[in-house]
Design goal:
The complex is a heterodimer of chains A (about 375) and B (about 230).
Chain A (H helix, E strand, L loop, with lengths): L2 E6 L3 E5 L5 E6 L3 H12 L5 H10 L3 E4 L2 H11 L2 E4 L4 H8 L1 H7 L4 H23 L2 H34 L1 H6 L3 H10 L8 H6 L4 H12 L10 H32 L1 H19 L2 H6 L2 H6 L3 H10 L13 H4 L6 H22 L4 H20 L1
Parallel strand pairs in A: 1-4, 4-5
Antiparallel strand pairs in A: 1-2, 2-3
Helix pairs in contact in A: 1-6, 7-12, 7-13, 9-12, 12-13, 13-18, 13-19, 18-19
Chain B lengths: L1 E6 L2 E5 L3 E6 L12 E4 L2 E5 L6 H7 L12 E5 L5 H10 L4 E6 L2 H12 L5 E5 L15 E6 L6 H12 E12 H4 L5 H14 L2 E8 L7 E8 L4
Parallel strand pairs in B: 6-7, 6-9, 7-8, 9-10
Antiparallel strand pairs in B: 1-2, 2-3, 3-5, 4-5, 10-12, 11-12
The chains are: A alpha/beta (about 375), B alpha/beta (about 230).
Bound molecules: S-adenosylmethionine (SAM).
Chain lengths: ~375, ~230
């Protein structure tokens, strides 16, 4: 069966033969129809006009650039369909677009005008759909992340206590929670802490001997009937930890979209926390930097107002390496400088969105260097 | 005020200080608050090398500058359009700038300040990692310019070029060393990215460091080999 290449433009659908000759061209009736069809094609579904064009053309092997459309054509229209990107005829069309739109009755200028209108409408629609939906999710996700951490820690304590009845020596030998968890979830019964199993579980060479010896000579109780329960608990915690990682990844992406300047300056996690503590990006953008500096230290601030003790110098931003990494005497100044830059970054993110994160970050770094130099003198 | 032509649509203007500017395609309108100068019946918009990497490249004396009157340009990572508006000036009425950005907030400003005002601009709110998803908006281009500041920025550019850059067309990338690796020396990162570009069948025609205008950035300009 001969091939027919399916190529989309902002003005209509083209079906071309292998040499790029027109088999069929179907123009959208207006911008509205174009937007609807293109939105559908963007989601991998053939819309009305595409379907009609294929039906009118009849028996061909249709070649799409998007494999999802090929699958859709096979499933819903029952035609033969494959995919290839970029396809030669599509490349040809994109290089001589003026000639092709002429075949469906448009001049190049008319086409440019249609495309421009459609592009603005499609982008505007996406902008209004996306607006502000993300920053509420950032607040939820950052809180979820904290709660997940707390949960994991709480459950790990329970696990260490319970599993400690069976193999108490492992508690002290493996301090890191993630390693401890992995071992309990993988091996569980201490009789399985053999050198081979340990190696397979990724335990560093030098610890393999130590752990297998501890297991052999353990003073813990056998606890056979409870071990499946303990293992299930460990598995659950591992899963919860993975979920936490997914949440962190979501936060990264959401912050990149929502607050790229803030993210560039302080990272996704601190940035998201500030957004959450301020009650949204817009609120953060409206805050004076003196308040940003103590966000997350509200308790200490109230205490100082009540008791007249020293006010806190920094809240959440203390987590930033430049603040907690500075000599104690300088921390207040570094925190103040950072809070000032955060205020600028948040305003740009909330009001204009232009990316200046590198410049702002660079200015902050130079300010810190300057503070360090002055203190050194 | 003295006016000296640098490239198509790009001029050095000089009074007490010298600065770069592009000839305004929309006289009377400043896009993002940049200074406007009228000299000899023409209007120019200041092009700040601190805010715009191609301008920085010119300040640093680049010789390869593929953006020209009539060019079709695919611009990846257009942001709110600061640089894109100058490219729109340069390519003029006969050219086109296809502007892709994934973030909606800058796109909102881009639409208001640039796309709705300039007929030679096409706005695309889409992820440049999936170039097929805007195939109906883009034509074959003479130049691809990539400024997405992502770890996989070079791959993003090359994937787009495969679909949309004509053979013999120019691929220009503003490599941001720090978004690729925070530990490697920028020199190593640049070398590695240049290698990727060569391996994909491009000839590198120029490399320009953008310091001090953009920290740890290098502009790599290359030409896609081959014929249709
Ligand atoms: C350094 S800024 C660009 C500034 C702009 N070129 C200028 O000079 O005016 C990087 C831009 O790339 C965009 N970006 C990042 N990842 C992207 C992707 N996968 N697809 C499209 N745009 C992306 C960001 O949203 C941001 O606006």
């Amino acid at each position: 069966m001969s091939k027919a290449f399916f190529v989309e433009t902002a003005a209509g659908i083209f079906i071309l033969d292998g040499d790029g000759n027109l088999v069929k061209g179907k123009a959208f009736k207006g911008a509205g129809e174009a937007e609807e069809e293109l939105a559908s094609l963007g989601e991998g579904k053939l819309g009305k006009l595409s379907t009609l064009a294929i039906k009118e053309c009849g028996k061909f092997e249709y070649v799409f650039e998007d494999p999802r459309l090929a699958a859709d054509a096979r499933e819903r229209l029952g035609v033969e369909a494959t995919s290839e990107a970029p396809s030669k005829p599509a490349m040809k069309l994109r290089s001589e677009i003026g000639r092709y739109v002429g075949e469906i009755g448009l001049s190049k200028e008319e086409y440019d005008e249609v495309r421009r209108k459609v592009s603005i409408n499609l982008a505007s629609k996406k902008v209004s759909e996306a607006s502000s939906a993300l920053d509420v999710s950032i607040v939820q996700a950052v809180n979820l992340l904290d709660e997940t951490d707390k949960c994991v820690n709480l459950l790990v304590s329970r696990l260490r206590e319970w599993y400690g009845l069976h193999f108490p020596e492992l508690w002290g030998a493996v301090q890191r929670n993630d390693r401890y968890l992995a071992l309990v979830s993988r091996l569980c019964d201490r009789s399985r802490f053999t050198p081979e199993n340990l190696k397979e579980a990724g335990v560093p060479e030098r610890q393999v001997g130590q752990l297998s010896k501890l297991a052999r000579e353990s003073s813990g109780a056998p606890l056979e009937t409870s071990l499946p329960q303990i293992k299930a608990l460990a598995d659950t915690i591992v899963l919860l930890g993975k979920r936490g990682e997914e949440t962190a990844k979501f936060l990264e992406e959401a912050m990149e979209l929502e607050a790229p300047n803030l993210k560039a300056l302080v990272g996704a996690s601190i940035g998201a926390r500030l957004v959450a503590q301020a009650g949204g990006l817009l609120n953060l953008a409206k805050m004076p930097s003196s308040k940003i500096q103590v966000l997350g230290a509200e308790k200490a601030l109230f205490r100082s107002m009540k008791t007249g003790s020293k006010p806190p110098k920094h809240g959440t931003i203390f987590q930033h390496a430049a603040v907690h990494g500075s000599p104690r005497k300088l921390r207040g100044k570094v925190a103040r400088a950072l809070a000032g830059k955060i205020a600028i970054a948040a305003r740009i993110d909330a009001f204009s969105g232009e990316f200046q994160g590198d410049r702002i970050g660079g200015e902050f770094e130079r300010r810190v260097e300057q503070l360090l130099k002055e203190a050194g003198k | 005020m003295k006016v000296e032509r640098k490239f198509d649509g790009v001029y050095f203007l000089a009074d007490e200080r010298a600065f770069l500017a592009t000839e305004n395609l929309k006289p009377g309108e400043s896009v993002y608050g940049e200074r406007i100068e009228r000299v000899g019946g023409k209007e120019y918009r200041e092009w700040d090398p601190h805010r715009s990497k191609p301008s920085a490249a010119i300040q640093k004396g680049c010789r390869a500058f593929p953006f020209a009157r009539g060019s079709k340009v695919l611009y990846l990572g257009a942001g709110s359009g600061t640089t894109a508006s100058h490219i729109s000036d340069i390519v003029g009425d006969e050219g086109k700038v296809f502007c892709v950005d994934v973030a909606y907030r800058p796109m909102r400003d881009f639409l208001e300040r640039v796309a709705k005002k300039r007929e030679n601009v096409v706005a695309i709110l889409s992820d440049a990692r999936h170039p097929l998803l805007y195939r109906w908006m883009v034509e074959e281009c003479d130049v691809a310019y990539c400024d997405v500041a992502q770890q996989d920025q070079t791959k993003i550019m090359l994937d787009n070029c495969e679909l949309y850059l004509k053979p013999g067309g120019h691929a220009v990338i503003a490599v941001k060393a720090r978004s690729i690796s925070s530990v490697a020396r920028p020199e190593e990162t640049y070398r590695e990215e240049a290698r990727k570009i060569r391996d994909a069948g491009y000839e590198i025609v120029e490399q320009v460091d953008l310091e001090p205008y953009a920290e740890a950035h290098r502009m790599i300009t290359s030409v896609r080999k081959g014929r249709r």
